[in-house]
Each structure stands twice: as C-alpha cells, then as structure tokens.
Amino acid sequence: MRAVVLGAAAGGGFPQWNSNTEACRRARAGDGKAMPRTQASLAVSGDGERWFLVNASPDLRQQIEARPFLHPRRGLRSSPIEGVVLTGADVDAIAGLLHLRERQAFTIYATARVIDVLKANPIFGVLAEECVRREAVPLEKTFELRHIDGSDSGIAAELFDVPGKVALYLEPGDAPEALAGRPGDTVGVELRAGSDRLIYVPGCARMTDGLRQRLAGASVVLFDGTLWHDDEMIRLGLGPKTGQRMGHMSVSGADGTIAAFRGLPVRRRILVHINNSNPILLDDSPERAVLEKEGWEVAYDGMEVSP
Ligand code: MLT
Ligand code: MN
Fold it and tell me: Which of 55, 68, 74, 242 is the 20 to 30 A CA-CA neighbour of 113?
C-alpha cells in the first residue's frame, strides 16, 4: 500500500485566510521553518496507479494539481481517483467533494450517518448518483476498496467510531450529550494490505480502551494533532472555544495524545489535522522538540506515510 499526505492542516489550513498570528505571517513570508499546509486529506493506493482519498478537503483541487500521481492520464477525461472514504461530515472532510463534480465516476464510502448528511444537503446533488456511488458502510465491518471497474484495490478498510462531535453546522445546541453526536458521526479508518495496517484518525475527543486496542500493533497511525493545549485558542485570543468543545483532544497534558500513546506499540506515529494555532507547525518551536523526543512526527503536505 502506498500512502501520501495530501494536506496536514486542520480546518482553515496554514496559514488561515484571516489569521495574522506570527506563525501565519512566517508561513506567508516563505520562512522555511513554517511550512504552509493545506487542509487534512490522505491518498492511498494498492497498485500505485489508482488512488483513494480519505476525506475531500476544501483544498482538494490544489492538492490534486500538486501531486502528479493524481493527474488524469487516460484519454481526454479521466482521473486516477477511484473513491473517497469519509471520516465525518465536517466542512473540511466533505467540501472537496464539490471539486469532483465533472461527471467522473467514483465511489464515496462513509457511514450511513454521513451519507445522510450528504443526502440532506442538495448541493451534493451535483455529484450525479449515476456517476458517483454512495456506499453506506457499517461500523467495524471490513470492506474492500474497489476500483470503478469492480476490481479489488488490494486494500481492505474498516470504519470505527471514535469520541467526537457532530459537524459544527449541525450542532443542536450546547448540551454536551447532543454535541457528542451518535455512533458513525466521527470515525477513524483502518486500511490493511497484507500485514500492513495504517490507521487514520483526524479527529478524536479522547482515548478509550477500545481505541488503544485498535491502535496497538499498527504500522502507521496518523492521529488528531489539532491543538497543543486545550485552551490555546482562548490564550492566544483567537477564539472562545477549547479543544474539548471542538471535539479534539490536545497533544500535550495528562489527558493528551502524547501521554495516551505512551507504551502503545505503534511503529510510526504522526500528527495530522494540525490547527494553525498549534506551535508544532513551527520546526523551531520548543513544542516540536518535545514531540520529536517522544517519537512523534508532524505531517506535511506530500509526506510519504506508506506502511
Ligand atoms: C473540526 O475539526 O473541529 C472541524 O472541522 C471544525 C470546522 O468545521 O471548521
Ligand atoms: Mn476539522
């Protein structure tokens, strides 16, 4: 299995259009230690020719143009993109589907909860049903990623529920139980080929025993790296919300990702979906040094993460 990070940033990207923080200014100025990143997405392939995306970010058009392996090669109209797996219905996971609207056949794999969100939003009708198949996938059931011609890609996939939050635009109010959503609203995806296991979890509100069991023994894990501190948006004066309120566990701290992964046998651990407020985006930050000492990598656009 080949796997490449198309985008490593959280919603808004790095730099974010309306952010004038020092980090975003450094990214705009071309500072080599503040590398710009587009919004989170992963591309995987079983044969190196035909590809599946995990999430379709609002930056998808730019991501396709940046990666020659995603360019059309057959005839006047074609695409190596055979399918898109969705981990939720957040804007940064589904908005890019609208870039794929030129009557090109591909399959969308998602939970019934997420497929229902697409169905309820008439704008996604631009993906004509006779071209774009929407496959509702049950949780914790292995399915094969299939090429449009019906052949197997060689990659088996499984969606599993993780603690999260309903999409921002579907929030039913502030009650924590309702905000947490239902099973299938926020999922991770496990991709397997032979003995390789790659797990992609761009959003997760907390570690659970079940999730630890799932992650144990994985070849590569790409995990929610949204915030360093739960309250960093508030501290920096960027917004009123904590990471917890947004459905993201933070990287540092007693309940954070670094602590949660200690002792977990995972060959390669990588943070992805990184918010522009997170200091790990800066190669020369003390937080980056801490992270690397703990054996973590920070995803960037174009990063090879093949197991
Ligand atoms: C998130 O990851 O919390 C969401 O993508 C936020 C958003 O919808 O902008
Ligand atoms: Mn997001």
Answer: 242
